[in-house]
Amino acid sequence: MSDRAFTIRESDRIDPTTRLPLIASALAELPGIIRENQSDRQIGIISLAVVADPQLMRQSSDVINRLRILATQEIQASLRPQDRVYSVSLKEWLIAQPNLISSAATTLAMIRLRDNLTALAGRPGILSRMPRLALGAAMWPDDGEDSLFLVQSARIARMFAEQDGPDIRCYLPAMETEGDDERRLLDELHLALNEQSGLKLFLQPQVDLTSGRCVGAEALLRWQRDNGEWVAPPRILEAIDRLGQRRSFNRWLLHQAPQIQKQLLDSGINITLSLNLSANDLLDVELPDIIGQALATWDIAPQQFMLEITETMMIEESWQVLDVLNRLRKLGLRLSIDDFGTGYAGMGYLQRLPVQEVKIDQVFVRQVVDSDKACEIIAAVIQLTSKLGMSIIAEGVETIETRDELERLGCRLAQGYLFSPALPVPEFIAWCKAVPAREKLVAPAGG
User: Fold this and answer.
1) CB neighbour list of residue 365: distance below 8 Å, 6 or more residues apart
2) What is the mean pLDDT of each run of 10 residues along the chain (447 residues)?
């Protein structure tokens, strides 16, 4: 696939009804707002939402759109010129207030917003009675220093305002109460992140179905607690986000991966290493620079890395995401859509996004032998990606029959327990050297 520039459309930047920047813009801009904030001042983050009721549910889209436009105008008029407003959804707005003397200013702003928006009732084209509003706020740096963590904290406070009690709430850590075991898990993970110990990357082989040789590997997160429990990767990432340390974790990940690639090359294993990235990771404008520095430190070619991004993220992309994707491609990194087929993005996204690989989700792969529909879906994806010059890989291959059916359909690459589970790096190196030919890949490698 050519490396032509991918157009950043106006619709990727703004909400078409309110003309406000989308929440992805807020997450991309907040780090800069934090850096530029006066050292002795705070930043307020407000989540404002309309609580849907039967009256609102009965309204036409035209009425809803007029309400959103008028509400946006009233929100902007109720704030300071330096405050920024973003659209989150049909019923939610996000507001960033830099350079505040105290949190009292944000509380007063929420009161003013609630009263002014409630007063819209009865205007021409507007409902006779406004639905209830819910507002939540979080403050930087008291409620967290990470931009995503702050936004989540404000939305958690707003969620409590929706559920019961006062319609204006400020974030409190007690809103996220958890049991003793959960607290211990967070404490252990916090220590592991700070000391950069305990967290590991295991490698799962990606195999060429024609030759049986390992041509790549996906780096998968692993963590074993002090009590011996292995924690599932989604739970690890959720806990990292709750700690507000996703950026710190990403920096560890993006420096750990080139070190592993260096170990592989020194062992005579020249393959592509795949890393998983989320939508929020791609909103980090510093991401391409961090990866470039890590690759330069370990003298690793960027072409030896594949960055996997989830399909569901694509439906919510912003111009910032596309800008980061284009910069990653210019750096020489390859990009893949992970779990293709399980999200909302259509195949048309493949044509305009700078990706070179598609991973078929295991939901379809595991049904390919017994389900004609799954078989047809996979065949269609293989045909389309081939025409676009992309490679395709099937994940979750667990049986020889599945492998053979995928090969018959034209899929060349696969990963799954048929070949091997994810392995610690030394064991992966040993596996690669012990399994040179296809005929040896006839049964699951233990584990």
Assistant:
1) 374, 378, 394, 395, 396, 397, 402, 406, 416
2) 46 80 88 90 94 77 84 93 92 94 89 89 71 91 86 92 82 75 83 84 94 92 89 85 81 92 93 85 84 91 88 52 84 84 56 80 87 88 86 92 92 92 94 65 42
338-381 pLDDT tens trace: 877 655 445 656 666 778 888 888 888 988 898 888 899 889 88
Residue 285 near residue 253 (C-beta atoms within 8 A): no
What are the helix (H) ranges across 285-409?
Answer: 287-298, 311-314, 319-331, 348-352, 362-365, 372-387, 400-409
Domain hosting residue 82, numbered range: 10-176
The answer as to whether 204 is a domain residue is yes
State the CATH number of the domain containing residue 34: 3.30.70.270
| Token pair belonging to 402 | 């599945």
**Domain holding 404: CATH number?**
3.20.20.450
Using H for helix, E for strand and C for coil, what is the string for 257-285?
HHHHHHHHHHCCCCCEEEEEECCCHHHCC
Domain count, the chain: 2
Q: Judge whether 1 lies within some domain.
A: no
pTM metric for this prediction: 0.65
Mean pLDDT of the chain, nearest integer: 84
Q: Does residue 343 sit within a domain?
A: yes
**Same domain, residue pair 280 and 194:** yes
Tell whether 249 and 132 lie within a shared domain: no
